[in-house]
């Protein structure tokens, strides 16, 4: 028997408990394990979660779970850094295996946590920390183990994807789409982590660590949110044959890894541009397998609970197999000891190359386009397409430019110079463009 204790009985905790109790027979049949949910700790044990629990299972005593000698696996589902980190470290030091869905904790404190787990010979499972029910961590760690990972990119935040979908489908502005997302419970009262790309950056740091055998590098991820995107930008993107998505992107080349989260224009005919609402989709490109795509629900009680239970079962199999022998850490702690001969460094955002969408706000006067294009040319940025509509002589109007591939550092310099021109009325918006250059 593998005894489990859960700390945190919110949305994901409830889903995890439901799966462990209601699907106990099918889990046992498929895994050969008797997974026993022994205790659940939460600050509020009076609130109804719509699930019937055995008498005495709920407790407010977190320490009782961490110190219980009969509990093999502690599942942390409270979120945040404190006190979650303290609970996990105490559990590890008590020789208990840990499963968590806490992407912020793993992305920022994961190096310390995994080092402590290695020291005490226990496992740390975090499948549920990225993309909910999509088993993307297991895919990278196990399914694609024979591949050098060339790129990982995708939509890994359902809230921002829902907002951009509403803006695209209904032509509404960001603020109205955000209010709708909050009304439906897709966005928090404080949506900063979602709309500023922070949540996606947490998840990207985890994926990149597994894909490229680098330490968790959240602070090195370039982060840019969707708050400056307007319905006008989405309309112009459509005219150019693109849709705007908040993408998390990791790419490896020449011993360096790009780690970036930002609004991105993606060709309309790409599958990822068709991923709408709260759904997630992740592309992984391997040198042997080529392009692979993983799609599904990125959040929610049951999808995320499914991923949590997957980790519990994996750890449970090792516990039963080893019968008290130190559990093998291969596959869980590989981020600490690189498998590959390459040692990747993080590429700075100014060193990347991409195509770019520019929205200049300029006064409608003769020669404006030639002035702006002249500055772009001076910085080695060539123009692929131009859109200029709604002529209002003497007033500020949008001027849309799509560039060929350029260097980010040249784009930064060019935009800085253009924004100082007396004919430019507002700060320029630029969006990176993914896809094959025509």
Q: Which features characterize this protein?
A:
36% helix, elongated, 12-stranded mixed β-sheet, Alpha-Beta Plaits, 438 residues, Rossmann fold, alpha/beta, Dihydrodipicolinate Reductase, domain 2, 18 strands
3D architecture notes:
The chain is α/β, with parallel strands linked by helices. The protein has 3 domains: 2-133 and 300-336, Rossmann fold, CATH 3.40.50; 136-297, Dihydrodipicolinate Reductase, domain 2; 351-433, 2-Layer Sandwich (Alpha-Beta Plaits). Helix content is 36%, strand content 26%. It has 14 helices and 18 strands. The protein has helices at residues 11-22, 24-31, 62-67, 84-93, 103-120, 136-143, 158-170, 174-183, 192-195, 198-212, 231-239, 301-322, 368-378, 408-418; strands at residues 2-7, 35-41, 58-59, 73-76, 97-100, 124-125, 149-155, 222-223, 242-253, 256-267, 279-286, 290-297, 345-347, 353-363, 383-388, 396-403, 406-407, 424-433. The strands form 2 sheets. Strands 7, 8, 9, 10, 11, 12, 13, 14, 15, 16, 17 and 18 form a 12-stranded mixed β-sheet that branches. The chain has a 6-stranded parallel β-sheet with strand order 3-2-1-4-5-6, sandwiched between helices. β5 (97-100), α5 and β6 form a beta-alpha-beta unit. The longest helix has 22 residues, at 301-322. The radius of gyration is 24 Å and the shape is elongated. The relative contact order is 0.13. The model is unreliable at 324-341 (pLDDT under 50).
């Amino acid at each position: 028997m593998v005894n489990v204790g859960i700390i945190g009985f919110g949305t994901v905790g409830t889903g995890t408990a439901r799966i462990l109790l209601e699907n106990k027979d099918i889990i046992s049949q498929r895994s050969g394990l008797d997974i026993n949910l022994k205790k659940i700790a939460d600050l509020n044990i009076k609130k109804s979660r719509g699930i019937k629990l055995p008498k005495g299972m709920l407790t407010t005593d977190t320490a009782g779970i961490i110190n219980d000698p009969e509990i093999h696996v502690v599942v942390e589902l409270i979120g945040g850094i404190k006190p979650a980190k303290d609970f996990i470290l105490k559990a590890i030091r008590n020789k208990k295996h840990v499963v968590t869905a806490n992407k912020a904790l793993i992305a920022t404190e994961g190096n310390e946590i995994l080092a402590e787990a290695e020291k005490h010979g226990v496992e740390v499972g975090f499948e549920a920390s990225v993309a909910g029910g999509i088993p993307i961590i297991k895919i990278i760690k196990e399914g694609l183990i024979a591949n050098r990972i060339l790129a990982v990119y995708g939509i890994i935040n359902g809230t921002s994807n829902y907002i951009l979908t509403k803006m695209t489908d209904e032509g509404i502005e960001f603020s109205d789409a955000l209010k709708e997302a909050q009304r439906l419970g897709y966005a928090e009262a404080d949506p900063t982590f979602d709309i500023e790309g922070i949540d996606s950056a947490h998840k990207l740091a985890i994926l990149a660590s597994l894909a490229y055998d680098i330490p968790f590098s959240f602070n090195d991820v370039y982060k840019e949110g969707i708050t400056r995107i307007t319905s006008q930008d989405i309309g112009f993107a459509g005219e150019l044959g693109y849709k705007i998505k908040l993408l998390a992107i990791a790419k490896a080349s020449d011993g360096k890894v790009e780690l970036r989260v930002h609004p991105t224009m993606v060709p309309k005919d790409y599958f990822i541009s068709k991923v709408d609402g709260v759904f997630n989709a992740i592309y992984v490109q391997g040198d042997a397998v080529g392009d692979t795509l993983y799609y599904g629900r990125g959040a929610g009680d049951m999808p995320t609970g499914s991923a949590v239970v997957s980790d519990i079962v994996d750890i449970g199999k090792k516990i039963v197999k080893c019968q008290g022998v130190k559990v093998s850490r291969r596959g869980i702690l590989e981020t600490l000891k690189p498998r590959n001969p390459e040692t990747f460094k993080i590429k700075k955002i100014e060193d990347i190359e991409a195509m770019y969408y520019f929205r200049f706000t300029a006064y409608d006067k003769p020669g404006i386009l030639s002035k702006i294009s002249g500055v772009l040319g001076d910085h080695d940025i060539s123009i692929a397409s131009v859109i200029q509509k709604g002529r209002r002589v003497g007033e500020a109007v949008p001027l849309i430019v799509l560039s060929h591939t350029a260097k980010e550092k040249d784009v930064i310099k060019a935009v800085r110079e253009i924004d100082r021109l007396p004919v430019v009325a507002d700060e320029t918006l630029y969006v990176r463009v993914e896809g094959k250059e025509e």
